[in-house]
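Supplementary notes for students who missed Thursday's class. We covered one full example, reproduced here. Read the sequence, then the structure, then the short commentary at the end.
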Amino acid sequence: MDHINTFLHEEDGIGVVEIILILVVLISLVLIFKEQLTSIVNTIFSKITSQSNSV
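Structure (token representation):
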């Protein structure tokens, strides 16, 4: 029973600071590679559209 209480009161999880840092890194990567990402997405959608017409 003592192990369960220590597990419930343990505070070793991910904190708010870590989550904010991860979000900042992800957003900055998206902003840096925005043109490349939009180009890739447009290419994928054009291939999907052209190949769906043949099916």
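Commentary. Residues 5 and 11 are 12 Å apart (CA to CA). The chain has a mean pLDDT of 87. If anything here is unclear, bring it to office hours.
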